[in-house]
């Protein structure tokens, strides 16, 4: 089985797993994404290689509190705060961290900074995803919901960027990952926007403008991938794990989601969707 087929098959299985978690019931959504968080947490703490185990415990405690708080509000259908600077604080923290990853990566060298990094980079996105979904969205497989569609768009972006880059990719644009090309980036963006147009005009009663969301995903999903690549390069790691054939670990597969989750949260918060 060649690498593309392996990536496609494992990616399809991954999407089906996400479909079950995000569509079956509110409880499976919470349990399923708690499991995904735990797997990513395990991989990331191995990459960062803490000197003191108690920092790892502290990260887990804070992240679990964030996840549990947002999951509780989601499960009980509680509304979220209207647009304000306070509501945007998680977004501001995350994008400050993204700046650190790309411009000042040496800051992530000590256990204290690793603790803060893990909470913001991993804990926040998994908590914030509950902002753009409601219990009434999760009623079984007869109805798609925003969370599943976001994962489908990310998968489209990743798959078609890989196909386009493999076929016609020539122009590299970053030293972080030499396999990334402008042609692949354009292919992923075009494909995801086309799917976004389809969702917007043919799938009704799904809150949000899906053309806007698809453009955001087409831009920021590759940035999420690059951010994780930068982290792995900083700590001398090739893959976060080996549980997903063709992709590496769960963190390698969810790196785009971490970025997209915060971006879509910001969009939903600003426009009070």
From TrEMBL:
<feature type="transmembrane region" description="Helical">
    <location>
        <begin position="146"/>
        <end position="169"/>
    </location>
</feature>
<keyword id="KW-1208">Phospholipid metabolism</keyword>
<feature type="transmembrane region" description="Helical">
    <location>
        <begin position="12"/>
        <end position="41"/>
    </location>
</feature>
<dbReference type="GO" id="GO:0016024">
    <property type="term" value="P:CDP-diacylglycerol biosynthetic process"/>
</dbReference>
<feature type="transmembrane region" description="Helical">
    <location>
        <begin position="114"/>
        <end position="134"/>
    </location>
</feature>
<dbReference type="InterPro" id="IPR000374">
    <property type="entry name" value="PC_trans"/>
</dbReference>
<keyword id="KW-0594">Phospholipid biosynthesis</keyword>
<feature type="transmembrane region" description="Helical">
    <location>
        <begin position="53"/>
        <end position="71"/>
    </location>
</feature>
<feature type="transmembrane region" description="Helical">
    <location>
        <begin position="181"/>
        <end position="203"/>
    </location>
</feature>
<keyword id="KW-1133">Transmembrane helix</keyword>
<comment type="similarity">
    <text>Belongs to the CDS family.</text>
</comment>
<dbReference type="Pfam" id="PF01148">
    <property type="entry name" value="CTP_transf_1"/>
</dbReference>
<feature type="transmembrane region" description="Helical">
    <location>
        <begin position="209"/>
        <end position="227"/>
    </location>
</feature>
<keyword id="KW-0548">Nucleotidyltransferase</keyword>
<keyword id="KW-0472">Membrane</keyword>
<protein>
    <recommendedName>
        <fullName>Phosphatidate cytidylyltransferase</fullName>
        <ecNumber>2.7.7.41</ecNumber>
    </recommendedName>
</protein>
<comment type="pathway">
    <text>Phospholipid metabolism; CDP-diacylglycerol biosynthesis; CDP-diacylglycerol from sn-glycerol 3-phosphate: step 3/3.</text>
</comment>
<dbReference type="GO" id="GO:0005886">
    <property type="term" value="C:plasma membrane"/>
</dbReference>
<keyword id="KW-0444">Lipid biosynthesis</keyword>
<keyword id="KW-0808">Transferase</keyword>
<dbReference type="GO" id="GO:0004605">
    <property type="term" value="F:phosphatidate cytidylyltransferase activity"/>
</dbReference>
<keyword id="KW-0443">Lipid metabolism</keyword>
<feature type="transmembrane region" description="Helical">
    <location>
        <begin position="83"/>
        <end position="102"/>
    </location>
</feature>
<comment type="pathway">
    <text>Lipid metabolism.</text>
</comment>
<keyword id="KW-1003">Cell membrane</keyword>
<keyword id="KW-0812">Transmembrane</keyword>
């Amino acid at each position: 089985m060649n690498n593309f087929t392996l990536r496609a098959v494992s990616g399809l299985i991954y999407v089906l797993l996400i479909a079950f978690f995000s569509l079956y019931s509110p409880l499976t959504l919470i349990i399923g994404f708690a499991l995904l968080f735990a797997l990513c947490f395990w991989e990331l703490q191995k990459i960062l290689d803490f000197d003191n185990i108690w920092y790892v415990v502290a990260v887990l405690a804070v992240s679990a509190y964030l996840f549990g708080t947002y999951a509780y509000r989601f499960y009980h259908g509680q509304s979220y705060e209207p647009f304000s600077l306070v509501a945007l604080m998680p977004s501001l923290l995350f994008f400050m961290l993204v700046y650190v990853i790309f411009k000042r990566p040496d800051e992530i060298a000590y256990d204290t900074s690793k603790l803060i990094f893990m909470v913001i980079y991993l804990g926040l996105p998994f908590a914030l995803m509950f902002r753009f979904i409601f219990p009434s969205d999760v009623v079984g497989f007869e109805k798609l919901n925003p969370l599943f569609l976001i994962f489908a768009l990310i998968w489209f972006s990743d798959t078609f960027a890989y196909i386009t880059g493999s076929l016609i990719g020539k122009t590299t644009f970053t030293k972080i990952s030499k396999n990334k090309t402008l042609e692949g980036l354009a292919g992923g963006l075009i494909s995801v926007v086309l799917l976004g147009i389809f969702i917007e005009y043919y799938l009704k009663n799904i809150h949000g403008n899906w053309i806007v969301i698809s453009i955001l995903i087409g831009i920021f999903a590759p940035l999420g991938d690059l951010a994780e690549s930068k982290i792995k390069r900083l700590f001398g790691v090739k893959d976060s794990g080996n549980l997903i054939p063709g992709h590496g670990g769960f963190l390698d597969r969810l790196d785009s989601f971490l970025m997209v989750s915060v971006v879509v949260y910001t969009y939903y918060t600003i426009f009070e969707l």
